[in-house]
Design goal:
The structure holds 2 protein chains of 2 kinds. Chain A is an alpha+beta fold. In chain A, 47% of the residues lie in helices and 11% in strands. Chain A contains 17 helices and 14 strands. In chain A, a hairpin with a 2-residue loop joins strand 8 and strand 9. The N and C termini of chain B lie close together (8 Å). Chain B has a two-stranded antiparallel ribbon with strand order 1-4. Chain B is globular. By secondary structure, chain B is of the alpha+beta class. Chain B has a single domain, classed as Alpha-Beta Plaits. Classes of the chains: A alpha+beta, B alpha+beta. Chains A and B meet through helix 6 and helix 17 of A and helix 1 and helix 2 of B.
């Protein structure tokens, strides 16, 4: 866990890497929404933190004032790596139109409903085999042994890379996102990832397969093949965006079910509620915060935002706004009115949302089918990570 | 009851399809559109109302007539 200077005033000096905030941000958001709904800090540059649903969604739609060219919640400080370079960032997530528009269009069919259904059987088999590996022991780390094992293997399949590399991939992604305050570790993670894809793209040019990388290599934009540096960024995005986001959602959901036996029993008894429950767990434990960069000086809601300032788009805080959600801090597994924005809002809506939902549903269905009763091994043993992506990283549970 | 999806507002969240697959169809880019002319059979009106209430982009609306 990163160490940060203590925060005395969340309205003017917030820190999303603060250990207390990572573990329990809800009371802080409540207080900010009432007293200073768009907080500010000068830690790691000038950053704003909107906490109300209406502000977060309005800013997500205003792509002219709030650009996606810098979406990392923790900006990379210190010297940037020289080689290799991601000239175009990670399109489309770190792009504005027009690059955003056509790169997103190339990716979307790989994550359509129809396509995602075709990944469901392998996902279910994977979940079953993971559970088999620890069922008899009567205990497991539901984060490390289960949640963290699922998304990276599904993504590897889509990208057409060997499943044996899953642990290596996971390490790189965590270096980039979770240890973002550690400059060298982050640069190393990014370079390893890019280096891997550079080699893979060379290979796929020669021997194309039925996978996303090969498809991108043979795609055209305006009659021209897509530039390799753009494909490199898109491949990096699919990996980075599809791994710890989804495992955080799976882990948080299992944490909730381990600590709320009444909800767990209800889902075991009424499995037909699963679709609604998944939306509610996504709302209540939204993992992802994305950043935007202010393009020109603008006064927003009384806040004097300057060009180059960053906005931390707290979709998780928006999803706990009492103006929009009745009793927002309570998980209501069959909540009917749930206009949540866990996958963002506007043109950058998570391109992999169908895939994430499928993985979360299958992971919970299989867990509850085999392990209908479980609880935390100990409250103090749970460890959360946060910043860009919040979720449990250590989650020991017992099922005697 | 009759509904429509505003194609300029829809961003492909697919919540409507999840709640009422009989009323919406989703293309390969996750864009939603109403099935047929958007007329909702009485037995599906409750689900149409839920789809309207759950769309994160406010892209579904009831149309007059």
């Amino acid at each position: 866990m990163a160490r940060t200077a203590p925060v005395n005033d969340w309205a003017t000096d917030f820190d999303v890497m603060d250990a207390g905030y990572i573990e329990d941000p809800y009371a802080i958001w409540d207080d900010l929404r009432q007293h200073c709904p768009i907080a500010h800090t000068d830690r790691r540059g000038s950053n704003w933190l909107p906490t109300r649903y209406d502000d977060v969604t309005a800013m997500a739609h205003d792509v002219e004032h709030f650009s996606s060219i810098a979406v990392a919640v923790i900006p990379l400080e210190g010297p940037e790596p020289d080689q290799p370079r991601l000239q175009y960032g990670l399109p489309p997530i770190s792009s504005d139109p027009p690059l955003h528009t056509w790169t997103r269009r190339l990716l979307l069919p790989w994550f359509s409903h129809r396509r995602v259904e075709s990944y469901e059987t392998m996902t279910r088999e994977l979940c079953v085999s993971l559970i088999d590996s620890f069922l008899d022991a009567g205990e497991a780390d539901a984060a490390a042994d289960y949640a963290q094992q699922i998304p990276v293997r599904v993504i590897a399949r889509i990208l057409g890379v060997a499943p044996e590399l899953s642990d290596t991939f996971t390490g790189w992604v965590r270096d980039v996102l979770e240890f973002a305050d550690d400059h060298d570790r982050r640069v190393h993670g990014m370079q390893s990832l890019i280096g891997y894809f550079v080699t893979e793209l060379e290979r796929r040019s020669e021997e194309p397969g039925d996978d996303l990388l090969s498809d991108l290599l043979h795609s055209e934009e305006n009659g021209q093949p897509v530039e390799k540096s753009i494909i490199l960024g898109m491949a990096g995005l699919v990996l980075i965006a599809g791994v710890d986001t989804t495992w955080s959602a799976i882990g948080s959901s299992l944490w909730h079910l381990a600590t709320h036996p009444e909800d767990r029993k209800r889902l075991v008894d009424e499995p037909e509620l699963m679709d609604l429950a998944i939306e509610e767990l996504l709302r209540a434990y939204s993992p992802v915060t994305m950043a935007r960069m202010v393009t020109e000086d603008v006064d927003y809601g009384g806040c004097p935002m300057k060009a180059g300032d960053r906005i931390l788009m707290s979709f998780p805080a928006a999803n706990r706004d009492p103006e929009v959600f009745e009793d927002p801090d309570k998980v209501v597994v069959d909540r009917a009115h749930n206009r949540h924005v866990a996958f963002g809002s506007g043109i950058h809506r998570c391109a992999g949302s169908n895939l994430a939902r499928m993985e979360l549903r299958v992971a919970l269905e299989e867990w509850l089918r085999r392990i209908p009763e479980f609880r935390l091994a100990g409250e103090d043993e749970v460890a959360w990570a946060g910043g860009q992506v919040r979720g449990p990283r250590v989650l020991p549970v017992v099922f005697p | 009851m009759k509904i429509r999806v505003d194609p300029d507002k829809c961003q492909g969240h697919s919540r409507c399809y999840g709640l009422a697959p009989e009323l919406f169809s989703i293309d390969d880019y996750s864009q939603s559109s109403v099935v047929g002319d958007g007329t909702v059979p009485p037995e599906l009106e409750e689900r149409a109302t839920l789809a309207i209430a759950n769309c994160p982009e406010f892209a579904i609306e009831e149309v007059g007539g």
